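// run 5 | inverse folding | seed 20
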């Protein structure tokens, strides 16, 4: 996989979006272009060797060939989506990568809409909580 630095505009947008999050400023990111990826972006925790050598905690890979075809709002959303995976556990003092909370088929979202989908998920969660409380 060929890696490269990102465009200055991409770096500036990333920093702007990152600064608008609640991610602690002590977490260090490295933004790298990887135009051979089959997706627009990927987030990975730096391994111990990389962290030791560079003091980087999180590596964000972006396929700028795809990213550059997006408008500014789409680019911002992609960066927010990538950063949403980064979770600082203040109790343990560790960085964790978390999975998205929506995992379904796009055809269902198109058919029913995201609000309906989330309402169904809330209904399921409430029913499970109710069952747990009556069985516990």
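// decoded
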């Amino acid at each position: 996989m060929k890696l490269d630095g990102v465009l200055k505009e991409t770096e500036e947008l990333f920093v702007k979006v990152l600064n608008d999050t609640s991610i602690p400023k002590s977490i260090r990111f490295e933004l790298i272009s990887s135009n051979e990826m089959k997706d627009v972006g990927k987030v990975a925790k730096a391994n111990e060797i990389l962290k030791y050598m560079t003091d980087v905690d999180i590596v964000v890979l972006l396929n700028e060939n795809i990213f550059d075809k997006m408008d500014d709002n789409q680019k911002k959303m992609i960066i927010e989506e990538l950063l949403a995976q980064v979770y600082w556990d203040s109790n343990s003092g560790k960085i964790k990568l978390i999975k998205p909370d929506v995992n379904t088929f796009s055809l269902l979202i198109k058919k029913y809409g995201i609000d309906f989908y989330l309402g169904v998920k809330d209904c399921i969660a409430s029913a499970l909580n109710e069952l747990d409380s009556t069985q516990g």
